[in-house]
Amino acid sequence: MDVLQQYLNNIKIPKPTDKVYKDECVYSFDNPETDSGLYVSLCTFIGLGRDYVEKHYNKTGDAVYLHIRREKHEVCCQQQGDGPEKKITRLAIGVEGGFAADAGCKKYEYTDHCSIVVLPMFTTISWPNVDLPEIVKQSVHAIFEVESASKLAELEALKGTWDGEARVVSKHAQNLQQLGNGKKIPPSGWQCEKCDKTDNLWLNLTDGSILCGRRFYDGSGGNNHAVEHYSQTGYPLAVKLGTITKEGKGDVFSYSEDDMVEDPNLIQHLAHWGINIANMEKTEKSMVELELELNQKTNEWTALTEKDGKLKPLYGPGYTGMTNMGNSCYLNSVMQMLFSIPSFIRTYYEGMDYTLPLSQGDPAEDFTVQMAKLGHGLLSGKYSVPPPQGSSPDADPPGICPFMFKNLVGRGHPEFSTKKQQDVQEFILHILTLLERNSKDVGNPGQCFKFQIEERYQCGDSKKVKYLTRSDVILPLMIPMDAAVNKEEVAAYEAKKAELESQGKRIEPGLLVRPRIKFFSCLEVFSQAEVINNFYSTAAGKMVSARKTTRLSSFPDYLFIQLKKFMLREDWVPIKLDVSIEMPDEIDFASLRGNGLQPDEELLPEPDNPPPMPAMDGNVLKALEDMGFPPESCKRAVFNTRNSGLEAATAWIMEHIADSDFADPFVPPGTETTKFTADPDALVTIMSMGFSEEHALKALKATENNVERAMDWIFSHQSELEGSSTPAEPEFKDGSSKYKLKAFISHMGTSTMVGHYVVHILKDSHWVIFNDNKVALSEHPPKDLGYMYLYQRVE
Questions:
Q1: Active-site residue (options: 25, 329, 459, 522)
Q2: Which of 26, 244, 666, 759 could serve as 280's disulfide partner, Cβ 3.0–4.6 Å?
Q3: USP domain location, by residue (predicted)?
Q4: Mean of per-residue pLDDT scores for the chain
């Protein structure tokens, strides 16, 4: 025990508010179950793997650690025979196939082996041990008792959610209008008031009408009578009959908020219609359960995960899987894709100085540290080894669980901090923003995606032109359904499907015929000229018609292409286009190259005194904003429909909701200036923080007057601002317009909020499927069913 005496003053007892990293190393994916176990500092409560504990001691002097090594044992189940079919029991959207069954008889027991370890000699003292100093015993006991930092972060992220799906209290719940029309709802025998449907029925809480729900994408569900009733009456809340429980819970949908919501007054609202919840039993499937059932029926999952094939598992560097942490497949797919790109490998793996993470502060909250940790976890091969000979065929495959990374990148974000499924396109934009903000020390590997968009406007009166440019990192392409090359086959399939449905039958998923569209048809839609009917011409001094074309001014090293598969139907129902796009392995995008001002073109004059913002119908603007649309998009809708009313403005929004500039600040077409003018308030804000006017102007120009981004820009461009002799990197990389397909992410499910993502990546001349922690050689990569594609430029 003498070896401990000199360190006793440094030992601390963790308080309930302290972060204790006892689940995993903060610099690697070592944990108590790895062979070398986990070392938890009795001073800082940092958890460290064997590769890092000595480095941490050399840098900080922390010498005393609690060493935890955990053994996992599978316990045999006593159940005999095949037993009943496993039941889907929980919201598991995001796990393989979009659903999860009970674990059944697969159970585990854990045995912890603990000791006190003192560095630098790794002197080991057994635990428990009555002879240990009291401060050591109190510290270790407290480490065992307090919640781990990971658990605390998870609880914080899930606050106010149910199984990871946040349901906000409806704005209608407190003051819901309920009519005194004398209706009383019987306890059973319900039927839609407009058809013969007796399931999927919704009780409108305002007038007591019972109507069937929406039709699902496979033809099941209802006949849309409940949503049609809302469009006619405006009565917003409905509860699904059969999902109401004795506790006063049930599936409540708000049509005006377009989401499942909480109604804290549901008991009272039901009592108005004579419903006593004490007698209610749940008999209908909830919306979650129905979604999971649909995921099981479709053959999309089989195709995208290559379930029909006997896929060969792959192990080693670059073939490490990632555990699905409850709807984290979007994160897993994106990060696997990013870490297949050389700039990410160089920055966060090959070029990373592994003494750098051992810095001051909390390494679990350092973006560079966690990116380096993720890079090492995916690329080193340490966590991707074949299972021991004789292992169970259904043993969990190896992989890493990037919980600290997910918690860090999602912190403070209204969506990515939850366990809800997310859109990979939105997550890519989010992670690239974080890279830009945190790249001052290591360089920004995400620069390889950045390209410049050129927008050309030609005045219909004067024929003079105007060029505007903006930056982007993803090229979104609309899908022209009328360009399908197999229209006759699709029509025959739809007719057969309708015939079977009329007989109460369903068509087999294996007989599905998808519209087949050539990728070049999507490119044609992007490159087509668009007519702008209310363009302000500075040459004509009035509103005129103009033609707008969009091109690429630069071609990045890697080009993200998003196929716009998600949209809203005319009745506001979100749908996903189930199409097959013939994606080429190699392509030349030369036809999209923008060339700027041509010798025979004359520029429109700059606006000296731009016309005032046109008058807009305030009632329509408010109505649109009440529907939840961004204020700037509402202005766009009213302007582009020339104040012709709510219906026209709503239709415009439905058509343009996927536009990349949908929520950007609205400037009437033609009044934009190509000369940069700094926002005076933004300039004052940045200069008040001690930066020069010159630096503030450069930052605001580079970030389009965004103060937050401008501050990040200043910190990441210090050498450029200080006049370094090293030439600054060009803002946009450019080169050949020829590309080859490098990777693609596929989605299965009916919307971005549900389903599952997998990613296929071309590695060492063969396609590899990364399906969370399962990594295998791909036999039939479904290139035609992808959602987000990554093309690599070839010279």
A1: 329
A2: 244
A3: 320-794
A4: 84
The answer to whether 341 touches 558, Cβ cutoff 8 Å, is yes
Other residues' Cβ atoms within 10 Å of the Cβ of residue 137: 17
Name the one residue in this structure whose structure tokens are 């919640």.
147
146 close to 14: Cβ distance less than 8 angstroms: yes
254 close to 266: Cβ distance less than 8 angstroms? no
- Tell me, letter by letter, the H, E, C secondary structure of 611-640: CCCCCCCHHHHHHHHHCCCCHHHHHHHHHH
Residue 225 is assigned to a ligand binding site: yes
Q: What is the pLDDT of residues 215-230, one digit of tens each?
A: 754 455 688 899 899 9
Cα distances from 345 to residues 372, 443, 444, 595, 761, in angstroms, run 9, 12, 12, 34, 15
pLDDT digits (tens, 9 = 90+) for 692-709: 888 888 888 777 777 777
Q: Where are the alpha helices (DSSP H) in 146-285?
A: 149-157, 225-233, 266-271
CA 453 to CA 473: how far, in whole Å?
Answer: 10
Q: Report which of 689, 728, 730, 727 is spatially closest to residue 710, judged by C-alpha positions.
A: 689
Tokens found for residue 277: 């919840």
The CA-atom distances, in angstroms, between 772 and each of 266, 268, 319 are 39, 44, 11
448 is catalytic: no
Residue that is written with structure tokens 């469009």 in the block: 231
712 neighbors 689 (Cβ within 8 angstroms):
no
**Within this chain, domains 2-157 and 300-387+396-449+737-793 share the same CATH topology:** no
The first and second tokens of residue 633, run together, are 């998009």
pLDDT for 711: 79
Residue 508's CB is within 10 A of a number of other CB atoms, namely 10
How do the domains of the chain map onto residue ranges? 2-157, 161-297, 300-387+396-449+737-793
- State yes or no: pLDDT of 117 exceeds 50: yes
Structural class in CATH, domain 161-297: alpha beta
Q: What is the pLDDT of residue 752?
A: 62
| CA dihedral over 29, 34, 35, 39, signed as positive or negative | positive
Going by C-beta distance under 8 Å and a sequence separation of 6 or more, which residues neighbour residue 500? 506, 507
Asked if 329 is an active-site residue, the reply is yes
Exposed, middle or buried by CB within 10 Å (0-12, 13-18, 19+), for 209? buried
* Burial status of residue 281 (CB atoms within 10 A of its CB: 0-12, 13-18, 19 or more): exposed
- Residue in 172, 229, 430, 756 annotated catalytic: 756
Contact 261, 252 (CB under 8 A): yes
- pLDDT at position 760 over 80: yes
The domain at 300-387+396-449+737-793 falls in which architecture? Alpha-Beta Complex (3.90)
The CATH H-level (homologous superfamily) assignment of domain 2-157 is Zinc/RING finger domain, C3HC4 (zinc finger) (3.30.40.10)
Comparison of pLDDT for 323 and 151, the residue scoring more? 323
Residue partners of 541: CB distance under 8 A and separation at least 6: none
Alpha-carbon torsion, ordered 781, 785, 789, 793, to 10 deg: 60
| DSSP state at residue 277 | G
195 annotated ligand-binding residue: yes
